[in-house]
Design brief:
Elements (H helix, E strand, L loop, with lengths): L4 E9 L18 H11 L1 E6 L3 H14 L4 E6 L2 H14 L6 E5 H9 L25 E12 L26 E4 L3 H11 L1 H14 E4 L2 H6 L12 E5 L3
Parallel strand pairs: 2-3, 2-4, 6-7, 6-8
Antiparallel strand pairs: 1-4, 1-5, 5-8
Helix pairs in contact: 5-6
């Protein structure tokens, strides 16, 4: 594929009762030792992650080694599940999380609802514009590059799409699999193409695509028997 578009996974800090080592819930700038002392006085940090469980555990284990006086734990779920859980906790007045890692779509919603605290990490100054919130409520921790994969057993090399425009060709109708909720990819594509052109492109692509709920299901999907014999193209993020 000629072009690939990136979307970012962000780390947010919660504005509420909990105090984590990554959270600064005071109006003045505190030293690292002050923040550490506040976190240790509470003794607990809960990390909500839309990250795979193994990587989440690695982060928590490393945190415990650095700050053994803090009981750190994580809860892993999808972005949508984390959002619902956070909002449910907020409605009940019982906020249980301290730090959340999610994608930009859900993070934007949390920021709009006033759920995030400002944390000006010393490392933020090394991030260029676009990878951190100007107001200091989030910082990007890794970037995914969205790309299309294809079945090499059924798609001839000469037939591989060379651009996003190629996906609109009639021969790919019914043979393109898309995650049913690719919010960041959709927004990035529209931004890159321009709103008018981008939305027009997405409407045409929708006519050729099959939506699948979740990446695992997308990767296991096979095109209908009435298709032209090609296994589907799958839109998926590449490795970090």
């Amino acid at each position: 594929m000629k072009n690939s578009f990136e979307f970012r996974v962000l780390c947010f800090v919660f504005f509420g009762m909990g105090i984590a080592i990554l959270t600064m819930l005071i109006s003045v700038r505190a030293s690292a030792q002050d923040v550490k002392a506040l976190a240790e006085s509470e003794g607990k940090m809960v990390f909500y992650a839309a990250f795979n469980a193994n990587d989440s555990k690695t982060l928590i284990d490393g945190f415990k080694q650095l700050y053994p006086k803090i009981d750190a734990s994580f809860y892993r779920a999808t972005d949508a599940q984390l959002m619902e859980r956070i909002l449910t906790e907020a409605r009940a007045g019982r906020n249980l999380w301290d730090v959340v890692m999610s994608t930009s779509f859900y993070g934007h919603n949390l920021k709009k609802r006033g759920a995030l605290a400002v944390y000006d990490s010393p490392e933020r100054k090394f991030y260029r514009e676009g990878y951190k919130d100007p107001q200091g409520t989030w910082t990007s921790i890794y970037t995914n590059y969205a790309a299309f994969g294809f079945n090499t057993r059924n798609v001839a090399k000469a037939s591989i799409p060379k651009s996003y425009a190629d996906l609109l060709k009639p021969e790919w109708k019914g043979n393109i699999g898309l995650d049913s909720r690719p919010y960041e990819w959709f927004g990035t594509m529209v931004k890159a193409m321009g709103e008018e052109k981008g939305l027009a492109y997405m409407r045409e692509l929708a006519k050729n695509s099959q939506l699948r709920n979740g990446r695992t299901l997308s990767l296991s999907w096979s095109p209908p028997a009435s298709s032209r014999g090609r296994s589907p193209l799958i839109r998926k993020p590449s490795s970090r």
